[in-house]
## 1
Amino acid sequence: MAIIDPSGDPLNTQRGSTTSSTAPDPATYIVDMDMNNFQQILEGSMQTPVVLDCWAPWCEPCKNLMPVLEKLAREYQGAFVLAKLNIEENQQIAAQLGIRSVPDVKLIMQGQLYDEFQGALPEGQIRQWLGKYIQAPEDAPPSPEEQARAALDAGDPATARTIYEQLSQANPEHYDYRIDLAGALLAEGNPDRASAILDGLPPEHRDAPKARGVRARLAFGEEAPDAEELAALAGRDDSEARYKLALRKVADGDYEAGLEALLDLLKTDRSYGDDLSRKTLLRVFDALGADHPLTVTYRRRMFTLLY
């Protein structure tokens, strides 16, 4: 879809990153769109990208999304213009843009529609979407999601849990935040609450890969040997002991060591537990996610070993 300029010709451009000068006053880059400034805003996209937020007063997801977009617009300091279009009051524009449901967010650059998304995405996903086209200021503060991930990496699940609780409360329709909260609670040593959060998700989110991953981590925690059993395993080097020690490593979050131990057991005693090491490797991959670097590396090594 091309946005038409006043001459009636499509404005074509190459897709790419754009950086704009800083505008000191947010009123210059957070604006309401209507028939009075519609053409002016589109023409302005020749110099500065426009994020067009199409919303309606009766739309609850729109009310969750708009503050996120406004926050990002201020953070980007004028690198893009946030134009807010009330489709109820501007039905002619909405019809011209082909808006069928809201929220509907469009990125317009150099007079052309570059990308769009529908629905109230989480802030982290919107950042990724923007980052494909627009460079954020170097001094932009880390997002809450980045802060939470950094806290988990630093061994501080309590801080991550607090951040995810706040995100979940502020964005009740973003179920990924609830899944992240369950993961933080599990890392903090609260598996019962983590399980309750997962059980309370709508079915389509409860069975999604991300939720299955947290459930797999919950299961590993239940199956892994406790301190007493670990003491009893000390000095043993049989397949059962090696398998249980690998489970403990996975449950403790030492995934690489656990995967290495399971792969070694697969290599030396594949018949143990009716191919249990291979089945458990697949469960760890599910827990980490298909795109995790360890999943990619160890899945390849497992297939090389087997085939």
Note: Residues 1-24 have pLDDT under 50 and may be disordered.
## 2
Amino acid sequence: MAQTRWVADRLAESDPGATFQIQSIRTTGDGDPRPLFAMDQKGIFEREVDAAVAQSRVDFAVHSLKDVPSQLPDGLTLACVPKRESARDVLITGDGSSLQSLPRGSIIGTSSLRRAVQIRRSRPDVGVRPIRGNIETRIAKIDGANYHGIVLAQAGISRLNLDVISAALPEDEFVPSPGQGSLAVVSRADDHGLITLLKGIEDADSRLEAEAERALSGYVESGCRFPLGAHASVDGPTMTLRAAAFSADGKKSAVARIAGDRRAPRDLADRTAQDLRRQGVEALASGWRESLEMWNR
């Protein structure tokens, strides 16, 4: 809702004559209490919302880009990607401890298998426990008994203007989820007037980064249950795409860093995917199912 209000405010600034009414829609992901990586589904936070767009019950939808599948339903389009927030993951604790300074045996909460794997690779002596709920609910669970800290995206904290003590996690070890930090505005592909309005708040670099990360995600067939990290960054005429994929137990990985022409994000994604394939990413993707139970205990 905060993200939707932010988009509506930016659109109103871009076109002062436009007015908006926000409609809330409950999704499958909202009503399922299981850890995200225990759900063998794609689009669990956007399917019902995008159905409302397709059926003309609403004009457009605002999502976290990382929740949007790489292939949208027929008739819908990713109309706008506004300027991206930080893509970093952060650790939130009661006293501002960093991941490395937490005592042995500390319990860290996360709803992401990617983050769980990366935490255990960095600190095999701490515990990782699933956690659900909105951002405020998760933060309230940091009590030193059940959770000593939780890992969240910096973008969500920033958009809610939350005053919390956090420590940024190193980007080379915690490559974020594809699309993390970006918003996705989805509309009907034939609603050309609305698309023109939405394009008024699009950020060109953020769009290119989103296209590269989403293309890579599609090539590798990632999802909430396969821990792929991908982060593209534009610097002048160049775009660099970093990617990291892990086995579910965190013991094996495939890591790539490829630079190329910013105007060809899909080519960059394809070359990065090829590098990951040479390192055996398919074996990582097929092997995670066998060890998923350890994350559900």
Note: The first strand starts at residue 60 and ends at 64.
